[in-house]
Amino acid sequence: MTSKNRCAWCEKDDLYRNYHDNEWGKPVYDDPTIFEFLILETFQAGLSWYTVLAKRENFRTAFESFDVQKVADFSEEKIISLCENPGIIRNKLKIRAAVTNAQAFIKVQEEFGSFSKYIWGFVDGNPIDNQPQSLSEVPATTEISDKLSKDLKKRGFKFVGSTVVYAHMQATGMVNDHITDCWTRS
């Protein structure tokens, strides 16, 4: 049996390999999944993606299966209880940002018809295929992530710096940064 050639970053364990093989870089157009990744990416800011991914199921429970309306309506009591939840990243600013971002997400949906239509508009509706030869060729930010980050901030989103936004673009397949010899490209 031969093993699959993957992007080197995902070889830590099966959790990472599953995420890499089945989600990362695959285009996502539905608002609920885009919202889930947006919330998870905001919690990732300053931490490793693995830390967030390992707590993903706990986040799903804590954040009502990432139901944007429910998160937008979180009360102060709910926020405080999340700050005490050991199953998630207990950063009060990020928890509050998740609520703020849910509210801003809904406003974008109202303006554009869907958040997907808004965000995919930054890449003209088509994934950008960078075709890096190695991980060293994968950028942390791009002009597009800079522009999207700036626009999200203007709309009231928090924890959406260009690096976080670029990671979101990778996660949701707006950009394909799988190395050229990664099996997922076949």
As for the number of domains, it is: 1
Give the CA-based shape.
globular
Major sheet: arrangement of strands: 1-2
- The separation of the N and C termini measures 18 Å
Largest sheet: 2 strands, parallel
Indicate the CATH class.
Mainly Alpha
Spans where pLDDT lies below 50 across 5 or more residues: none
Number of strands: 2
Radius of gyration: 16 Å
Order of helices and strands: HHHHHHHHEHHE
What is the count of helical runs?
Answer: 10
Nearest-integer average pLDDT: 95
- Please state roughly what percent of the residues sit in beta strands, choosing from under 5%, 5-15%, 15-25%, 25-35%, 35-45% or over 45%: under 5%
Q: How does the helix and strand content classify structurally?
A: mainly alpha
CATH topology: Endonuclease III, domain 1
Residue share in helices?
A: 40-55%
CATH superfamily: Hypothetical protein, domain 2
Please tell me the CATH architecture by its name.
Orthogonal Bundle
Written overview of the protein:
- This protein is an all-alpha fold.
- It has a single domain, classed as Hypothetical protein, domain 2 (Endonuclease III, domain 1).
- Helix content is 53%, strand content 2%.
- The protein is built from ten helices and two strands.
- The mean pLDDT is 95.
- A two-stranded parallel sheet has the order 1-2.
- α2 packs antiparallel against α7 and α2 crosses α10.
- The radius of gyration is 16 Å and the shape is globular.
